[in-house]
Amino acid sequence: MTPELRKDPVTGRWVIIAGERGQRPNPFRHYAPATEAGGDCPFCPGHEGMTPPEVLVFRDDPGDGGSAPSWIVRVVPNRYPALRIEGTPDKRAEGLYDMMRGIGAHEVVIESPEHDGDPARYSPGQMAGVIRAYRDRTTDLLRDTRFRYVLVFKNHGAAAGATLTHPHSQIIALPVVPARLEAELAGAIRYFEYRGRCVYCDILSQEVSDGRRLVTQNAEFIALAPFASRFPFEVLVLPRRHDAFFWTLAKHQVEALAEILQDVLRRYRLALRDPPYNYVIHTAPPGHPSPEVYHWQVEVMPKLTDVAGFEWGSGFFINPTPPEEAARALRDLERFMDVTDAQLLRGPGAPA
């Protein structure tokens, strides 16, 4: 494939799609899974005293006879927070530099009592519990008027930033809106002012019609490889119905999001041999005056290549796998999904 420059229709960011670079020896990094003794893990059942007291917990049915752990999902404050909840912003300037106190909230979602759990292997109810925890904690944190944004993200694997192997994700409440979201909002507003429509709704319409970059879908969500993908096998999950705010999810949407996110992660496990990855939920900030312009979404990014000098120096990303090829490879796993689903749910040691 001849290299192409592709422009993201929302942010205006340019990406180089360089398919020939995929022919290099070892174009993707391979990572050995991290190991950690479950007996020392602060997130395992029986070690609840090793974490701060939970701020949210979903428990098992007490009729289970007591043979299972008493919880299925826990949310606790991070013992080593990036931001602290006490205090006021105290905005101030030092000459031309602006600063404020590092207030916020930093929480850990312990996604499963199983130390070796993997979202690709969770039961549907387990994954739905994780999504529900994201929604409920976001709703609660946004009641604090000091916080202008809540970021939900997961790091899976040491190379993606996970410091503990026990499955977990994180929630950070911020006193400012992140620059990435500001850029997305600005691009969405420009598009809406020009065309009178949501850019993400138009992306959905075009991608469903085109079909080349579709990965999977269900009644509520579409998963696709973005036209200007920065990374190999990057996937964007969008709700079919326009909504600017993630935390408005109804029960059936929680279940549908859990289903499609788990579907994408299962395909990664099959096609890419359980790579490190990150996923991030993007949502409009609370009280945004123009919810009609923005469409909340989940960005999923396997850690297969490194960001190096060219990327840092230019702001361009080089993607060696055209998104059409990535989507086709993930989509072509469809005929294996039913069989593999049963295998994956057997737990560690199942074929990958």
What share of residues are in beta strands? 15-25%
Number of strands: 15
Rg (CA only): 21 Å
Task: Please name the CATH topology.
Answer: HIT family, subunit A
CATH superfamily: HIT-like
State the shape.
globular
Largest sheet: 10 strands, antiparallel
SS class: alpha+beta
What does this structure look like?
With 352 residues, the chain is of the alpha+beta class. The protein has one domain (4-23, 38-88, 100-344): 2-Layer Sandwich (HIT family, subunit A). It contains seven helices and 15 strands. Helix 1 packs across helix 4 (251-272). The two termini are 30 Å apart.
Give the SSE layout:
Blueprint: E1 4-7, E2 14-17, E3 56-59, E4 71-77, E5 92-94, E6 97-99, E7 105-110, H1 124-141, E8 149-156, E9 168-174, H2 179-195, H3 199-210, E10 214-217, E11 221-224, E12 235-239, H4 251-272, E13 277-282, E14 297-302, H5 309-314, E15 317-319, H6 323-331, H7 334-344
Parallel strand pairs: 2-15
Antiparallel strand pairs: 1-2, 3-4, 4-7, 5-6, 7-9, 8-9, 8-13, 10-11, 11-12, 12-14, 13-14
Looking at this protein, list some descriptive labels.
352 residues; alpha+beta; HIT family, subunit A; 15 strands; 27% helix; 21% strand; disordered C terminus
Quick description:
The chain has helices at about 125-140, 180-195, 200-210, 250-270, 310-315, 325-330, 335-345; strands at about 5, 15, 55-60, 70-75, 90-95, 95-100, 105-110, 150-155, 170-175, 215, 220-225, 235-240, 275-280, 295-300, 315-320.
